[in-house]
């Protein structure tokens, strides 16, 4: 891989860089953090979330909209 990168006049690409890119791609695809943890072999979910948490989009607006939708439709409320 180093030879191919050098021939293409690219910076050195480490195996770890490919691993990080792979995890980033899975996050963008919406894959569950638990599945990513398992795939990467992290012992606990905290490692995965601490390493990649900056890649997860802030979904507070989407959550608020869903809650508004539920409260607006009283048939969806638990009785």
Query: DSSP strand (E) fraction?
Result: under 5%
Mean pLDDT figure: 87
End-to-end gap = 61 Å
Share in helix: 55-70%
Query: What structural category do the secondary elements indicate?
Result: mainly alpha
Shape field = elongated
Low-confidence stretches: none
Radius of gyration, CA atoms, in whole angstroms: 20 Å
Taken together, the total number of domains comes to 1
Number of helices: 5
User: In sequence order, what are the helices and strands, one letter per element?
Assistant: HHHHH
Number of beta strands: 0
Describe this protein's structure.
- By secondary structure, the chain is mostly helical.
- The protein has one domain.
- Helix content is 62%, strand content 0%.
- The chain contains five helices and no strands.
- It has helices at residues 2-7, 15-28, 33-40, 45-52, 60-72.
- It is elongated and about 65 Å long.
- The mean pLDDT is 87.
């Amino acid at each position: 891989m180093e030879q191919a990168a050098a021939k293409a006049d690219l910076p050195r690409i480490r195996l770890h860089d490919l691993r990080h890119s792979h995890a980033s791609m899975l996050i963008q695809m919406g894959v569950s953090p638990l599945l990513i943890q398992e795939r990467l072999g992290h012992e606990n979910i905290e490692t995965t979330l601490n390493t990649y948490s900056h890649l997860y989009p802030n979904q507070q607006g989407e959550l608020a909209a869903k809650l508004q939708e539920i409260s607006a439709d009283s048939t969806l409320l638990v009785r």
